[in-house]
TrEMBL record:
<dbReference type="GO" id="GO:0005789">
    <property type="term" value="C:endoplasmic reticulum membrane"/>
</dbReference>
<dbReference type="InterPro" id="IPR055074">
    <property type="entry name" value="NOMO1-3_2nd"/>
</dbReference>
<feature type="domain" description="NOMO second beta-sandwich">
    <location>
        <begin position="125"/>
        <end position="218"/>
    </location>
</feature>
<dbReference type="InterPro" id="IPR013783">
    <property type="entry name" value="Ig-like_fold"/>
</dbReference>
<dbReference type="InterPro" id="IPR055075">
    <property type="entry name" value="NOMO-like_N"/>
</dbReference>
<protein>
    <recommendedName>
        <fullName>Nodal modulator 1</fullName>
    </recommendedName>
</protein>
<keyword id="KW-0732">Signal</keyword>
<dbReference type="InterPro" id="IPR051417">
    <property type="entry name" value="SDr/BOS_complex"/>
</dbReference>
<feature type="signal peptide">
    <location>
        <begin position="1"/>
        <end position="24"/>
    </location>
</feature>
<dbReference type="Pfam" id="PF22898">
    <property type="entry name" value="NOMO1-like_1st"/>
</dbReference>
<dbReference type="Pfam" id="PF22904">
    <property type="entry name" value="NOMO1-like_2nd"/>
</dbReference>
<feature type="domain" description="NOMO-like N-terminal beta-sandwich">
    <location>
        <begin position="46"/>
        <end position="123"/>
    </location>
</feature>
Length: 233
């Protein structure tokens, strides 16, 4: 009799365990690939280092930007993030400083059909940064920043045929930065409505398969000083 009761309890326990496992929600996951854009692939030379995507991070975030999980890409660009909850989320990508992405974020929905219906969520690496500085004439004890530069100088990135590709304004330190630039040959041009900007050296630049920094080729030799003369009565 005791043996039958024990077997009955054991059968109930096994049935309950199997039922719970069968009714539990399956674990879904979001995955895909990171790859270079076709323009980047065409610009890459045989002597350039092979792209390694293992230093690229992909994150699963809430709609408010809270990170729920993250993973590193495999060297070939593949990634996979398990998702334990259903709902709406965001997949975002980040990598080496200066690299540009398309897209940077992808909204997703996790439900019974999986993560975005189990479709791959892919990202493209599209370009590098090209940066430099416009140097301003400084001097005197009253000048607190000896390494500063003029702000709001318009710097243009031109193709080898002279077409404007992009334009940016310099920061308060005279820094300019172009994003999402494809490796190749370019020209630079700088101007300001109230300042004389001199080019000392060649304005032609070459961006390799990496972020580029331009030598100090633009200079502002001086500034205008304006004021009023008033009569005291």
């Amino acid at each position: 009799m005791e043996m039958r009761v024990a077997l009955l309890y054991l059968s109930i326990l096994i049935y309950s365990t199997l039922s719970a496992a069968a009714s539990a929600d399956p674990i879904h996951g979001c995955g895909g690939f990171v790859e270079a854009s076709s323009s980047l692939v065409k610009s890459r030379k045989a002597t350039d280092a092979k792209l390694d995507y293992s230093n690229i991070r992909v994150e699963l975030q809430t709609l408010d930007g809270l990170v729920k999980d993250r993973t590193q890409c495999a060297p070939n660009g593949y990634y996979f993030i398990p998702v334990y909850d259903k709902g709406s989320f965001v997949i975002s990508i980040s990598g080496p400083e200066g690299w540009s992405w398309d897209p940077e974020k992808v909204p997703i929905v996790v439900d019974d059909s999986g993560c975005n219906h189990n479709e791959d969520i892919n990202f493209q690496f599209t370009g590098f940064t090209l940066s430099g500085r416009v140097v301003g004439a400084v001097g005197g004890e009253s000048c607190s920043d000896k390494n500063g530069g003029p702000s709001n100088v318009n710097v243009e990135l031109l193709s080898h045929t002279g077409d404007v590709i992009s334009s940016v304004a310099t920061s308060p330190l005279g820094i300019y930065l172009f994003k999402n630039v494809i490796p190749g040959q370019y020209k630079l041009r700088a101007s300001h409505p109230d300042l004389e900007v001199e080019a000392r050296g060649s304005t032609e630049v070459k961006l390799g398969f990496e972020n580029g920094v331009v030598d100090d080729i633009f200079f502002v030799p001086g500034y205008e000083l304006r004021g009023f003369v008033v009569a005291q009565v």
